[in-house]
């Protein structure tokens, strides 16, 4: 069950990354975010079978490359975990940068555990979402979709790559 806690936290953080995806320059359709979990994430075993649980997480990211460089976003995710993988149940957040604000919702995603020498050492995630609201220099993103991938970069930290459609 301990491996679920580590993986779930990474997965949750990964979903948060999508919040940085909005851009002030429509011709630039990719962003990279450096993220970390905020507070403690909780894993709740569901009790119906071994390895089945939900994971809730909150995270914060900083735009590291792309049009949203310097932007800050806050987000949260919930994953259903089942042994070595998971499915996104819920994810949303807000990206704030001077002159631009975007609200995103994740519409799907998956999580895969990284296992090294029989132990979980991290997780990767991938999925898609939509910008529900975008104003200011990011206004052109309103209603547009995006995809994301994430990978761990250290204890409680991860990187999210976002590509807008």
Secondary structure: elements and pairs:
Layout (H helix, E strand, L loop, with lengths): L1 H15 L13 E8 L4 E4 L6 E14 L6 E11 L2 E13 L2 E17 L2 E18 L8 E10 L2 E8 L1
Antiparallel strand pairs: 1-3, 1-9, 2-3, 3-4, 4-5, 5-6, 6-7, 7-8, 8-9
Short structural description:
This protein is mostly beta strands and 165 residues long.
Describe this structure in words.
This protein has 165 residues and is mainly beta. The chain has one domain: Porin (Beta Barrel), CATH 2.40.160. The protein is built from 1 helix and 9 strands, in the order αβββββββββ. It has an 8-stranded antiparallel β-barrel with strand order 1-3-4-5-6-7-8-9. Strand 5 and strand 6 form a beta hairpin. The chain is globular, with a radius of gyration of 15 Å.
Ends apart, CA distance between termini? 37 Å
Strand segment tally: 9
What is the CATH domain class?
Mainly Beta
Q: How is the CATH topology named?
A: Porin
Mean pLDDT, to the nearest integer, reads 82
The H-and-E topology, N to C, reads as HEEEEEEEEE
Percent of sequence in beta strands: over 45%
Major beta sheet summary: 8 strands, antiparallel, barrel
Q: Helical amount among residues, as a percent range?
A: under 10%
Q: How many DSSP H or I helices?
A: 1
Overall domain count: 1
- Stretches where pLDDT falls below 50 for ≥5 residues? 3-27
CATH architecture: Beta Barrel
Give the overall silhouette: globular
How are the strands of the largest sheet arranged? 1-3-4-5-6-7-8-9
The structural class is: mainly beta
Our Rg estimate from Cα atoms comes to: 15 Å
